Amino acid sequence: MRYISTRGQAPALTFGEAMMTGLARDGGLYVPETVPQMSKAEIAALAGLSYEDIAYRVMRPYIGDTFTDDEFRGLIAKAYAGFGHAARAPLVQLGPNHFLLELFHGPTLAFKDFAMQLIGQLMQAALAKTGERITIVGATSGDTGSAAIEAFKGLSNVDVFILFPHGRVSEVQRRQMTTPAEANVHALAIDGSFDDAQARLKDMFNDFAFRDRVRLAGVNSINWARVLAQVVYYFSSAVSLGAPHRTVSFTVPTGNFGDIFAGYIARQMGLPIDRLVVATNQNDILHRALSGGEYRTDGVKPSISPSMDIQVSSNFERALFDAYGRDGAAIAQLMDELKTGGFSISQGALQTLREIFSSGRCSEDETLATITRLRDQTGEVLCPHSAVGVKVAEGHLGATPMITLATAHPAKFPDAVERATGLRPALPARMADLFDRSERVSRVPNDLEALKALVLERTGH
Ligand SMILES: Cc1ncc(COP(=O)(O)O)c(C=O)c1O
Ligand SMILES: N[C@@H](CCOP(=O)(O)O)C(=O)O
């Protein structure tokens, strides 16, 4: 199994190399050269297995010889041992043909834990073999950062720097990033949006001298291993509703397009998925792109679902790569145009995307109303991101069962939930003292040179 870049100019890598590399050296994202297939019989055989066993069978073909079978099984077991639900990703029924996939039972209460806990294990195992020391820099709109810190804090061979937009994450999210006391954790509040943080992160990767000097690694969904780990719950949930004998659809609250791209990969592998519905908040670039064919940024608008306040959706590049017939030069050209505001998707590529993806947008008022209504009708308390998903899914219900991804726990966004329901959801007991812990954070400018200097100084490179 080899991985190739979406821009066609970087060397093909093994799974282990792609995981440790993050962004390709031509600025592209790694994708599998060919997507492994699962037959109907292999998918049917997943029924009744534990989440860990499904994870092993779905991911094993992608790993090559980076880990032995036993090592890989052991790392998966460790990754999910700390989850607060035996099923890991339980399904709850919301209506006759509508199901909610709860992805918030991990240590930091968001779907990011599914991939980050696993990457933490895989990277540690890989580093133990090479004896290397790495510097992880991540950009976050709130959840990736806390999940990454949880997965890497205290490790002696990893420094982890997390850039989050100052004042634009919830207080719970901020405290999850700023209260860990471990010296290898560096929470950085950047003056700007998530898009600025992600752009500076990519700038660091594109500065090869810096990248090599600090041995830069990435744990955002630009890293293929992140996407791969998220493919698993598409299989586990679809199989529990009768796949491969029954086709399902998914609605995914979307920002950086990583989670829904994992669903696309599950579909490419053979899982019978009818529609993948992109659900956006008022930062609706993906909805506009899929409905009108124009991918144009118009500035991030802060919302009550802050983790989705994104305009430059990194992983859309991976979907475009396939839609443009895997033409790396065409993708490089589009990404150049994006630097000056956006691009038009060709008619052929748009048609290809629309064969799989649908989309919808949910306003701020609709988000709050959905939280209120769902609590009243079903007892389920949604976080605002999951509410965006549910509202958009409701516009796409039909004969095929719809699974909406619940991407975070409502207690991460207590202000929005209180506005909608009058109730402040409680944090789990293990986090009950989160507001009593002292915070450690550095305010940083949206400036590449200043950020590089800070990383060099803190890591002693
Ligand atoms: C709670 C929550 N929901 C949805 C999303 C969007 O996911 P993606 O960026 O993979 O599209 C994010 C951020 O990634 C998130 O933190
Ligand atoms: N919503 C994310 C943004 C980063 O996305 P990623 O999946 O690329 O890491 C967050 O919460 O940080």
TrEMBL record:
Cofactor: pyridoxal 5'-phosphate
Positions where N6-(pyridoxal phosphate)lysine occurs in the chain: K112
Single GO MF annotation: pyridoxal phosphate binding
Stored PANTHER family: THREONINE SYNTHASE FAMILY MEMBER (PTHR42690), THREONINE SYNTHASE-LIKE 2 (PTHR42690:SF1)
Record domain Tryptophan synthase beta chain-like PALP: where: 97-330
Protein name: Threonine synthase
Organism: Aliigemmobacter aestuarii
Pathway participation: Amino-acid biosynthesis; L-threonine biosynthesis; L-threonine from L-aspartate: step 5/5
NCBIfam families: thrC
EC nos: 4.2.3.1
Protein family: Belongs to the threonine synthase family.
Catalyzed reactions per annotation: O-phospho-L-homoserine + H2O = L-threonine + phosphate
One matching Pfam family: PALP
Sequence ranges assigned to domain Threonine synthase N-terminal in this UniProt record: 2-80
Gene3D superfamilies registered for this protein in UniProt: 3.40.50.1100, Threonine synthase, N-terminal domain
UniProt keyword annotations, A-Z: Amino-acid biosynthesis, Lyase, Pyridoxal phosphate, Threonine biosynthesis
Matching InterPro entries: Ser/Thr_deHydtase_PyrdxlP-BS, Thr_synth_N, Thr_synth_N_sf, Thr_synthase-like, Threonine_Synthase, TrpB-like_PALP, TrpB-like_PALP_sf
GO BP terms in the entry: threonine biosynthetic process
